[in-house]
UniProtKB/TrEMBL annotation:
Pfam families: 2OG-FeII_Oxy_2 (PF13532). Residues 51-72 are annotated as: Disordered. Binds 1 Fe(2+) ion per subunit. Residues 146-266 form the Fe2OG dioxygenase domain. It comes from Dichanthelium oligosanthes. Its cofactor is Fe(2+). Fe cation binds at residues 164, 166, 220. PROSITE patterns: FE2OG_OXY (PS51471). Gene3D superfamilies: Alpha-ketoglutarate-dependent dioxygenase AlkB-like. Keywords: Dioxygenase, Iron, Metal-binding, Oxidoreductase. GO terms for molecular function: broad specificity oxidative DNA demethylase activity; ferrous iron binding; oxidative RNA demethylase activity. This is Alpha-ketoglutarate-dependent dioxygenase alkB. It comes from the Eukaryota.
Length: 266
């Protein structure tokens, strides 16, 4: 990908991809959070507030079950003084805690499966057409790749992804298109069992990997990313994200890696 394209997808990964109805690792804790990046840029704080309607219902139901009596909203810094008792987290911290978001068909990490009953949007057109083009060399001739789901992984300095095989898609003859953005990482590609010694390679910003053919069935993982030690790697991005509006994004990507992997599920 060109530097311009990399910047575009980095911005989208932070601004658009975590938006509801897409689920993220934060959804299970805080419920739906809209406009997280805007909140972070404006130094907002997420606080837990009582939800009066639901609380009333809970009391009628004898405090019963799963109805949430609390929800979370963004407030400005000074307001927090009044609500000292509440649980609160800065929006900036939450962006740092973002580990994954899911586009298109929603992947349920607790069940390690696609949950087609969850509300979802289709994969954004620009991402779908990029994936279709990139998939061409790995597709049977005459067949077009159908981007149905994508998982976006966000890696901070000490995050990694353990060895795994992506085996929840129905048809393994279709590739996974995997885009690397930001800090470079070590990617390990092993064999069909955990016994085989993996091959290590660097993935850099703008690289696209096709997990196809034999590799589609192989164990793989990301044991580490590189940050400060290696800033030249992303200097092209740094100069292009120098506008005022990008200052948060720049700060983020200097020590983070983003991976967007696009899948045909059926
Ligand atoms: C995955 C995956 C690799 C990467 O999400 O299944 O293998 O490069 N990601 O982050
Ligand atoms: Mn994988």
């Amino acid at each position: 990908l060109s530097t311009e394209e990399q910047c575009y997808w980095i911005r989208e990964s932070l601004k658009t991809f975590p938006q509801p109805p897409n689920r993220t690792n934060l959804t299970a804790i805080y419920g739906s959070i809209s406009d997280l990046l805007v909140a972070a840029k404006n130094q907002k704080i997420l606080v837990e507030v009582e939800n009066p309607d639901v609380q009333e219902r809970n009391e009628q139901n004898n405090g019963g079950g799963k109805t949430q009596s609390k929800n979370f909203k963004f407030v400005d810094d000074p307001e927090i003084q009044k609500e000292e008792e509440c649980r609160s987290t800065t929006a900036t911290t939450l962006v740092r805690k973002l580990r994954w978001s899911t586009l298109g068909l929603q992947f349920d990490w607790s069940k390690r499966n696609y949950d087609v009953s969850l509300p979802h949007n289709k994969i954004p057109d620009a991402l779908a057409s990029l994936a279709k083009n990139m998939a061409i060399p790995a597709m049977p001739s005459g067949e077009e790749f159908k981007p149905e789901a994508a998982i976006v992984n966000y890696y901070g300095p000490s995050d990694m992804l353990g060895g795994h095989v992506d085996d929840m898609e129905v048809d393994w003859t279709k590739p996974i298109v995997s885009i690397s953005l930001g800090c470079k990482c070590i990617f390990l590609l092993g064999g069909k069992t955990r016994d085989e010694v993996p091959t290590a390679m660097f993935l850099r910003s703008g690289d696209i990997v096709l997990m196809a053919g034999e590799a589609r069935e192989c164990f793989h993982g990301v044991p580490r990313i590189f940050t400060e030690s290696d800033q030249e790697e992303i200097s092209a991005l740094v100069s292009q994200l120098s506008g005022e509006d990008d200052c948060f994004t720049l700060d983020y990507i200097k020590n983070s890696r983003i991976n967007i992997n696009i899948r045909q599920v059926y």
